[in-house]
Automatic annotation (TrEMBL):
EC primary class: ligase
Name of protein: Prodigiosin synthesizing transferase PigC
Protein's UniProt keywords contain Transferase: yes
Highest taxon above the source species: Bacteria
KW Transferase (keyword) present: yes
This enzyme's EC code(s): 6.4.-.-
Keyword vocabulary terms for this entry: Ligase, Transferase
């Protein structure tokens, strides 16, 4: 389902809505009020008749009408539904099926129902703390009957199943529709509650959450025996409840159940036969390996055959059986202890197949990697091949965790604003899924490979070291800051090393970075880190949790070119590592000087895009316009027309008198940097110098935004619009792209540091947008990056590239090099639906395109919302499912051909030295390729050539062969 949010109306529309919404602070108060009320969020018990009327609890619905009895909601509960779209303590029998599915709000109501269940389980009933004992408020038989009806309605549409398979299957664990219990969630909830009440239980809780198996039963019993005297009666009761739940969960498996359930399916059907075969196996003689492999295959058959099952009731049974099979695999996986490398790889494949069959990855995604995890009757394998399998297997864990975040992230974020405990929901879902078992098994393979390679990550003494994966080489010394919450609200420092759940979209200078979600390889944040030698790596959720204990400590952090990760306390650094940081303990950066000798400030009228080319870069305009002008001449059918506002027009306006100053804008700017230099000569601390400079730049920035434009320039711009776009200013939506002389300098990319005004059409907004773009190089973020890496950051000259908007179906970045394998003949591409997502750091669909071999899916897109560009300007937001790839095989072939054309044509048309690799921004509209930018792909040569970083990964014989019968 799709919904549209017109961004240009958002201030008016959402402003009026928010005025009516109940504040988060008030919701916090309501939650506490509910907790202490015996009726909680409910008003009273009533009869709800089938004709739509309501009656008092003592006045039943007439038999000829019929109805059911349950609680009604308090008025404030209803207000939360209507004003905030927040649903507390939903009574399903009270609810319209379509309203509960809530397709127009990305199924928010269903997700909230699951989230409410979680909060009630981990927080002593949460808002139902006392109301859970309110008799008659909810009738379990009515809830179950509604649940069956809901799924029979929901499963009528195969499109709904295909687009929402993961969500539907997950909801089976929460929406009552049969008699099943939920011991696994009960186990996690009780262990968490006990540990919060008794810190001595924390080690046991960590084991139960991190590596659960049936030995946990004895662990809990032993804890109770050893602490009997110190435990209260309530604590003993909770421990006994936990023990019973674990004993039930790990009780022997009755496979005959599946044979019994098979009778629900028509005779002779494929699923019935497969279920009968599985249920006929002898539980006493079947091995753990065979049980897991059989269960995984049956899960696969269920997901594959589900659309062909005719009856919705049979589809519901099939999905329930799939959940039962997952439970069997989850419980049995720790008992399968591979004795050989081959068996370890078999286990990884079986768990990956089962995880995909559970919906943790989309079916098309699994089809891209299925064959990469299978072995073709081999007796031995090279270390290189084994590493490739490890990378694919690890991706299945990462994609699965990303699926949970993508599906439930919006609901969790909504609740986090008033209930912080909601943040644990996503982790709970991951830990209850096969992604946990797969992650454990993949880590074991990673440990084996590191032993064979004589390589190892060294991140303190943490477990799961193989979960760390380096992205960009570099090293840093700084304070470690672990950020669990929204990274956009964190004020970062260039002295610190940050661990994020997700990388921020606008990263200011930092010493180092590691993220649970890398976004994508070619986002502006990732390119900046790679360009500037900032160590950058990916880690798991558990790794982030483990690193919390080191938060605030000074640490040494290094990432090698081969992806090895080191992190240790400052006092554990070797003498070689200490030698890397001389002169006040900071690594010296080789600063770049921006050439300004050839800059031409005499061009004070706009130019057509066809009037500039690569030779214009840094002279008349920045590299975006210069290169796009070059590309317009090379690929006229793939590049739009455009208008270039050169450096000279900016400089002309900067010569105007600045309000409330006895100087021009330019003189004020020069005086600001002169003052900063004088302060340094007077030994004023650099932080104070920066603070003073930023204050002056903020004043300048605001003044530029209000600057009157020279009338001649506006007239010239009007003529340029008519010439290039066939209309006056305001007649067509355009992008205004900042294009400074401080970008693409060979050693400094500057990607994403300055403003792009998206899809603006209104004449006044275009005029204002020009001034906003001119002001953007003086923002704190842009200035700090330039200040840190450039010798003359004050000599910034912005030009502007104005191009008409193309409402692309999907867009992204192509690097004419294989980033992960360092192969100059390959391509790395990342695409998101709509406009601008990939460069802004969204979790994009990324591919390694091998021009001589097989293309490899590096990561699927995991962004629910994307941008569209309406003709009246602004942005629309639309939503999507993940059940289809963004790029088609035809698109990939177009990218391959286009890359070959660029590699051949660029050196011919520009200079022989311009051989790439290139960073290309482009998009597809109705399968036509549109080219928006090409720039050099800049990597940090210092980090790559560092002798220390090279020493971390000595030469490895990647063709070393290992027997698949090798004992592990």
């Amino acid at each position: 389902m799709k919904f549209r949010i017109l961004l240009v109306l958002s201030i008016f529309f959402f402003g009026s809505i928010s005025a009516q919404e109940i504040s988060n602070e008030r919701i916090k108060e309501i939650i506490e009020e509910y907790r202490n009320l015996h009726r909680g969020p409910y008003l009273k018990i009533e009869w709800f008749c089938d004709d739509g009327t309501q009656r008092d609890s003592k006045d039943p619905c007439p038999d000829k009408i019929g109805g059911i009895q349950h609680a009604s909601y308090k008025p404030i509960t209803i207000q939360l539904q209507e004003k905030n779209h927040i649903f507390f303590a939903d009574i399903l029998a009270y609810t319209d099926k379509g309203a509960f599915w809530d397709a127009n709000h990305q199924h928010s109501r269903l997700k909230q129902y699951q989230l409410n269940n979680y909060l009630e389980s981990v927080d002593n009933g949460w808002i139902m703390e006392k109301a859970q004992y309110y008799r008659g408020s909810v009738q379990s038989e009515d809830e179950q009957e509604w649940g069956k009806d809901f799924y029979n309605w929901l499963l009528l549409s195969n499109n709904r199943i295909e687009e929402n398979f993961y969500l539907i299957r997950q909801s089976l664990q929460d929406i009552p529709h049969n008699e099943d219990t939920k011991e696994s969630q009960t186990i996690r909830s009780l262990s968490k509650t006990i540990a919060e009440d008794n810190p001595k239980f924390m080690d046991a809780r960590t084991k139960i959450h991190g590596q659960p198996d049936k030995t946990d039963i004895q662990l809990v019993k032993k804890f109770k025996e050893e602490n009997e005297k110190d435990l209260s009666a309530e604590q003993k009761k909770e421990i006994d409840s936990l023990t019973r739940a674990m004993e039930n969960f790990y009780s022997p498996i009755d496979l005959s159940y599946f044979k019994q359930e098979a009778s629900n399916f028509p005779k002779g059907t494929f699923l019935r036969t497969q279920l009968e075969n599985f249920g006929s196996q002898s539980q006493d003689s079947i091995s753990n390996q065979h049980l897991i492999e059989s269960a995984a295959n049956l899960m696969c058959e269920i997901r594959t055959e589900l659309p062909q099952v005719q009856s919705t009731s049979d589809q519901l049974i099939a999905l329930d059986l799939s959940v039962k099979l997952e439970e069997i695999i989850f419980k049995t996986a720790p008992e399968w202890k591979p004795s050989s490398l081959l068996e370890q790889l078999d286990k990884i494949y079986a768990l990956s197949l089962a995880s995909a069959s559970a919906g943790n990855v989309e079916w098309w995604e699994w089809n891209q990697v299925d064959h990469l995890l299978q072995l073709d009757n081999l007796n031995e394998i090279t270390l290189e091949e084994l590493n490739q399998i490890l990378a694919v297997a690890r991706s299945q864990v990462e994609w699965s965790a990303a699926m949970v975040k993508a599906i439930y992230g919006d609901a969790v974020e909504k609740y986090n604003a008033f209930e912080p405990k909601a943040s644990g929901f996503i982790d709970d879902r991951v830990r209850s899924s096969l992604a946990l078992r797969l992650g454990e098994t993949v880590s074991e393979l990673g440990n084996f490979i590191r032993e064979q390679s004589k390589l190892s990550n060294e991140v303190f003494k943490l477990n799961n070291q193989s979960s760390f994966r380096g992205l960009n080489p570099g090293y840093a010394l700084g304070k470690l800051i672990v950020v669990e919450d929204n990274p956009e609200s964190v004020e970062v420092s260039p002295e610190n090393i940050y661990i994020f759940q997700k990388p921020p979209s606008d990263l200011k200078p930092v010493a180092g970075i590691a993220t649970v979600s890398e976004g994508n390889l070619v986002s502006h944040v990732q390119l900046l880190a790679r360009n500037l030698g900032i160590p950058n790596s990916v880690l798991s959720n558990q790794n982030l949790e483990d690193l919390k204990k080191f938060d605030g400590e000074m640490v040494f952090y290094a990432v090698s070119e081969k992806g090895m990760v080191i992190m240790k306390a400052e006092d554990e650094m070797s003498s070689e590592e200490k030698a890397l940081f001389k002169e006040e303990g900071e690594r010296q950066q080789e600063k770049i000087s921006v050439p300004i000798e050839r800059i031409n400030l005499q061009q004070t009228s706009p130019l057509n895009l066809t009037e500039v080319d690569a030779k214009s870069s840094g002279i008349i305009c920045g590299p975006k316009a210069a290169n796009l002008g070059q590309l317009k001449s090379m690929f006229p059918n793939n590049v739009v027309n455009g208008v270039v506002v050169p450096f000279g027009i900016f400089r002309e306006h900067m010569n105007l008198p600045m309000p409330q100053q006895d100087a021009s804008y330019w003189e004020y700017l020069k005086a600001s940097f002169a003052q900063a230099q004088q302060m340094r000569e007077n030994n004023i601390p650099e932080t104070e110098v920066q603070h003073c400079t930023l204050d002056r730049l903020a004043l300048l920035r605001e003044a530029i935004k209000k600057m009157p434009l020279v009338p001649n320039f506006v007239n010239d711009l009007e003529r340029s619009f008519q010439t290039n776009f066939g209309t006056s200013i305001g007649g067509v939506p355009v992008f205004l792209r900042s294009d400074t002389n401080m970008e693409d300098l060979g050693n400094f990319t500057g990607a994403g540091l300055n403003l792009t005004v998206f899809n603006v059409r209104d004449r006044e907004k275009i005029i204002q947008g020009i001034k906003d773009v001119w002001a953007s190089p003086y923002t704190e973020r842009s200035f700090k990056w330039r200040q840190q890496y450039l010798e003359n950051p004050e000599n910034v000259f912005p030009s502007i590239l104005i191009i008409p908007s193309v409402d692309v179906d999907y867009s992204g970045v192509m690097i004419t090099k294989g980033i992960i394998n360092n192969n100059p003949n390959d391509l790395t591409v990342a695409f998101s639906r709509g406009a601008g997502g990939a460069v802004d750091g969204q979790s994009a669909e990324a591919w390694l395109i091998d021009l001589n071999g097989e293309d490899r899916l590096l990561s699927p897109a995991r962004e629910t919302f994307y941008n569209r560009l309406p003709q009246n300007g602004g942005l629309d937001k639309e939503s999507t499912s993940f059940n289809h790839a963004i790029l088609s095989s035809a698109n990939i072939k177009q990218l391959e051909d286009f890359a070959q054309n660029i590699r051949k044509t660029m050196p011919e048309k520009t200079s022989k030295e311009n051989v790439g690799p290139y960073d290309v921004e482009l998009g597809f509209k109705d399968n036509k390729l549109w080219l928006f930018q090409i720039r050099p792909f800049v990597e940090n040569k210092n980090a790559q050539s560092s002798k220390y970083l090279q020493s971390l990964t000595p030469e490895i014989d990647t063709q070393q062969k290992i027997s698949l019968q090798h004992q592990i």
